[in-house]
Every structure is written in C-alpha cells, then in structure tokens.
Design goal:
Blueprint: E1 5-10, H1 15-20, E2 25-29, E3 39-40, E4 46-49, H2 55-65, H3 75-95, H4 103-123, H5 156-159, H6 173-189, H7 198-225, H8 231-234, E5 261-263, E6 270-272
Helix pairs in contact: 3-4, 3-7, 4-6, 6-7
Length: 277
C-alpha cells in the first residue's frame, strides 16, 4: 500500500473561498490500487493531519452529523461535507476492520450521506434507485455502474441546455443514495464478528469516495470558470437517461418482493418502477 497523505484545511481569509461561501476545503492525495486516483486541491491557512485519531477531524465529523437543515448550505458546501465523511470512513477502514461495537456510528455516517444524496436527488429531479434485496453470494453489497462524462465541466451537452443531452453521467446522487442504502442494509443484517466481507465493503466505499470527489471537483471547477456563478443552475443534469427507469444488476423485473420505487416529481407520489415518470 502506498503512503497516504491526508490533510484538512480551514481558510477564513481566502477571497476565493469567501466568494464561494466555502467554510473549509478538503485536500487529499491518495493511490489505492487502481480504484482511486483523485485530488481535491485547496489553499490552506491552518492545516491539520487527516487522521481518525485527530480530535479536530472527529469534532468536524460530529458537527456534520448534526446538520439536518440542508438549505442552510449551498450545494458545494454540502458536497464538501459529504466528501469529508466518506474520506474519514475510507481512512478508518484502511487501518482497521470494522467491529460490531463501532457499527452503529458508521451506519450513522452512511445514513447522513444517504440523506444528503436523497436531498440532491429530489433537487435535481433524478430517479430514485433502490437496489434489489436479492444478493448473490459473490455480490453481498450491490453497487451501481458509473459512467462519468469524459468532458466533465466542459461538457456543452450537460451545461448548455439548448444543445443535445449528454449520454454519460455528471451528478449521480441517486446512485450514491442506492449504494449507501446497500451498505447500510448489509451492516444492519450482518454480525461483523462472524462475517468478514471487509474487502467487498472497501470496494463500495472506494467507489463512493471517487464518485463524490468527482462530483465535487466538477461542480467546483464549473463554478470557478462560469460567468454565471449560480450553483443551483450549474449543479444540474441534462442527461438522456433523465426520467427513464433504471435497472441495476441482479434486479428482476418480475421480482414482486423487490420492486423499485420512484418519486413522481409532480405530486410526490411513489409509482412502480415499470412506469415512466
């Protein structure tokens, strides 16, 4: 395993951060097999070593878990907090196997990410995805298949609403919601003292970390270079898969016990996944 260099920074004086109304930035560089290779950059005034033993980090995590009024923050700030939590989870599990005694705290962490992802899913009018409860032995934790757009924040199809729609992913909060739900379901139903699926959990966590950081970086870059500067307008999908049913791996259309539900944007009712919204 290559050496990891983790830092968290707080900058109250930087004009750029003030412009974006960001209260803190995450900076991390890591290389984890071939799954993760991403960087979140920031200028720092005060730097703390990113470690699960660090009291400053632990206090920041506890503060984030208390946040329930998401409208008090802009979308970029919420994505930063989401990124901090998933990095914290990853950093902890790289050094430790999750024990039964620690399980509830990590369920709370995943629940926070799941809830903020649900908030973004509704805000961006994305389909809600729920993984099937039918797990195969080799896939105890279901994961979505992500296909990010290679053009990122330069994609004219996603950000120029007059153009054709993009055929790749940009903001996939509905998939993050589904993957967190799958992790929570696994943790809830399994005794970690008798079942050892650490590697399978790490695959999902590493994927989530990459995905959340990717969305954060794309929105941050788009906001920085955009003349508009409106986060709510830039944090949006113009995707050809919008409003279309999504079927995840191992789901069965005839599985009556495991139907997906999607939110009807017009009247907030839930309808069967076999219907289009």
């Amino acid at each position: 395993m290559s050496k990891l260099d983790w830092v968290i920074s707080f900058d109250e004086n930087n004009d750029y951060i003030k412009t974006l109304e960001n209260k803190y930035k995450i900076s991390c560089k890591l290389s984890l097999n071939e799954i993760i290779n991403t960087t979140i950059e920031t200028k720092t005034s005060d730097i703390f070593n990113f470690s699960v033993e660090n009291e400053a980090i632990n206090n920041k995590i506890k503060e984030i878990l208390l946040i329930t009024n998401y409208k008090s923050f802009n979308d970029l700030e919420l994505l930063e907090k989401e990124a901090l939590i998933i990095i914290y989870i990853n950093r902890f599990l790289l050094k430790n196997k999750l024990k039964e005694s620690d399980k509830q705290f990590f369920i709370d962490l995943f629940n926070w990410i799941k809830n903020i992802s649900f908030y973004f899913t509704n805000k961006l009018n994305l389909n809600i995805i729920i993984h099937s409860k039918r797990f195969k032995d080799e896939y105890l934790i279901n994961r979505c298949s992500y296909k990010f757009c290679n053009f990122k924040d330069n994609c004219e199809y996603n950000y120029d609403k007059k153009s054709k729609k993009c055929n790749s992913d940009h903001y996939v909060h509905n998939m993050v919601y589904a993957d967190c739900d799958s992790l929570i379901n696994y943790l809830t139903k399994n005794n970690l003292e008798t079942a050892d699926h650490h590697n399978e959990m790490m695959k999902c966590i590493n994927t989530l970390m990459f995905v959340i950081n990717h969305m954060y970086n794309e929105l941050k870059s788009k906001l920085f270079y955009s003349k508009n500067g409106n986060i709510d307008e830039l944090h949006a999908n113009n995707n050809i898969q919008d409003r279309v049913k999504v079927v995840n791996r191992f789901d069965s259309l005839n599985d009556e016990g495991n139907k997906k539900l999607f939110r009807d944007k017009k009247d907030n009712k839930f309808i069967n996944k076999n219907k289009f919204i």
